[in-house]
Amino acid sequence: MPQTPHDGAKVTSRSLRLARLDRTHPHAFELVPDADTRAALADELDLSALRKLRLTGALHPEGRADWRLEATLGATVVQPCGITLEPVTTRIDRPVARRYIEAFQQQDLPAEQEMPEDDSLEPLPDTLHLDSVLIEELALSIPAFPRAEGAEMGDVGATPPGAEPIRDEDTKPFAGLRDALKGDD
């Protein structure tokens, strides 16, 4: 990411004391963990490998004390297929947006209530740890059930010896009604 005087400053630390940052311009950053760090993260996240990992973006001042983080997460992860256990390689490229708000109000929502529309809002921390942002976004981006090409779940049945297996059609509440109506034709 080339820098011009209007682009702001390049962040050199992975932990930023927000109250000490210059609020007159954005602060660009780029995190590219080394091979040892990627291997440790792969182990922590139960990945077979973490081939590439990068978080690139900028921290923008907003208002009197708030900050907006805009970044892009790029990663190449290898996981075992959830069906065949063959290695599955997934490329992740996704935008990251967070807003750190001084006047953030944590709401205790009832279990039945919907989450607020803007899920990028977070309380303003004293220190922003960019490594933590990278790890959290990576963990949220990893496929929960990776599948190798052509891998499909087969039919699974568990019945006691001598019993007739239950079919999907048997569990549908109106299956008998449909069969009865067919007989009236």
UniProtKB/TrEMBL annotation:
Region feature (Disordered): 149-185
Any Pfam family the entry gives: YceD
The protein's name: Uncharacterized ACR, COG1399
